[in-house]
């Protein structure tokens, strides 16, 4: 006996048991819900117990449906005693009817259930048992002679299943279609039908499964499956359970196997165009899905690919590999995926290609005005459809109006300007591209030299009497102007010998105090290394009185926020001159707020004053003779303080002392206090310190870390609230163990900042990695790893170091690119060193990260100890040598005395 162990099947039993119709037909003894919920009531059956007419078949519906193979099978039949053949269904139905008749005949009036009631109860119980039997039977192995159907993806198919009624008399039955979903034979219901009850469709089959119409040519249990998917492939079983016979009796049913065929479709294809270099290796990957599994074929230029020592096809034909690209390997490669349902193809073009490269870039040139200049820009590319574009100062040369008629771009990419003019000086850039990768560019500067010349000559110029004035000479020169000669009334003017006249750097004449003698007719002649193009025209210089203020603004205006201010100004012209125009402007250059500012006849009115209106204002009166200015200050009272300024500081190891100039406090009635905001560079959060005593403009921040960069700013506050922040300054505390000399600065010293290589020096290697400093017995070993990127560009390494001053080079000679360590012996104990390793290319370099290495103080102590020990040993050796010398001298003296005594004795004898 099988067990109802499949959760999905059990849910189907529950769904049916909850039907309202079932609830009305249950008996008090056993409810349908209890029957369906009892897995022990399920039983097993053999699929080949069913008998089916040998002529049954499965027919696919739809105009494009195909039946590839149909295998019919004939169920076994039984023979009765009279030698007649009966189908099992009829036999079982007859036996069941006989039992019903016998029970009817023996029915009594003793209050027992009538035959009809008992039959109804038995019928309902049998229905529930049959359903549970059908839904929870053990695994069934499909017969080998089942019906096989082949269908196309997306089409429809009809599983033709007949119902063989007992004795050919229609009786109620339950129709269930199941699909085998695993090798173990697990089956899931995909369709359940019972007359007058809701039809149930399995998950994924909603809206795609249905019974065929009753008037169709197919069997009454046939199933229509639409919109076929590849997942629909597999075994299906048609089960017909009659409600008027025991579960142990045979049931109707048929097995089907559905093959779903799909035309090929690509899941992976190579790129349409593949650019390669000679000697490269490539893999063209082409994968396709479909049923049956598509066959992959490769063609090159319409011919099948011929495998060779460098060309091969692998992984069931999905990969075409070329190990070494040769000229003959270039071409079109077509991948074809085909099966019995069709074929698809994809073509990839393999070409030797690369981005355009400038072989001969343009070079800087200097030309004289009127000459011809040609910039070369030779480029190579594969494919060779190189496009060259030229730009002048970022604009296409053909769009520069001044060059339009004088510029030519030749087929070889060179640029010609003929003739050149003075205004053609500038940077010219050629950009090359063949559509592959990013365009490359190269630039050169064109320098046009010409003799100095006067570009403009005003016929009349005015000088203000008793004021300073200038007679302009507008000059253009390349090479730069060297000097200018002036004439007055056709006589050479010697400004260096004339009081109150100076020749300015631009060649103009400056009169420090104008008088009537300065009036006259002037000319100027400029010179440079190329000479001069001649003198200017005559300039009539007239001396006139300047305009004068008749009304000037007050020196100071004090107003409160929200009020208005009106400042008055007027000026009068001198005789023989035009009336001066009057304008107002802020001395700091900020624009006036036009929506709140009105200017009328030289008077200015500012309404709804704000804190930002605080500042100095100028009334400017000007005519052709001179421009005169009168200034005033506008003070806005009743505002928060203005920003402090001139913030500076000095640092020690553990503290920074700041000082600043106070901003406007907001009015005489407001007292201003300050707060310091500071943080370590690179940290997001700010710390604050109130400045004490109140109103002080200097403070010291303590408990800072040595050798650390900090950022500082100051904010003022009065009774109305916080004011504006000062500018941020950066100060670095002194390193530990350094001299205590304070360092006054408003920013980190530039000599401590490492200078990186400019980008225009050419290609540079990658960054040296993992720089370490390790103390060893004979010194300190600095080690690093080669760059991960562009290591082939390294020509040599350099080690830079600093303590608290500028960066210096540590190594004396170049460190070869194959070496990744360097031994240094003379580091000073107790100091902190900062190291960087530079990877140098031909013209540029890249630096490693900066590392910090504090040298232990004991290194210094070792040296001192060694010196002391050496001194003591030297002293001991000196004493020993002295003693030996004294002994030798005494011995020699004694020998001399003995010889003298012997001599005297001999002489006596």
UniProtKB/TrEMBL annotation:
Residues 643-736, 764-858 form the Fibronectin type-III domain. One of its GO terms (biological process) is axon guidance. Residues 143-240, 264-351, 355-447, 451-542, 547-630 form the Ig-like domain. The chain crosses the membrane at residues 863-886. Its main location: membrane. Residues 21-33, 54-64, 106-115 have a biased composition (Polar residues). This is Protein turtle. It comes from Anopheles coluzzii (African malaria mosquito).
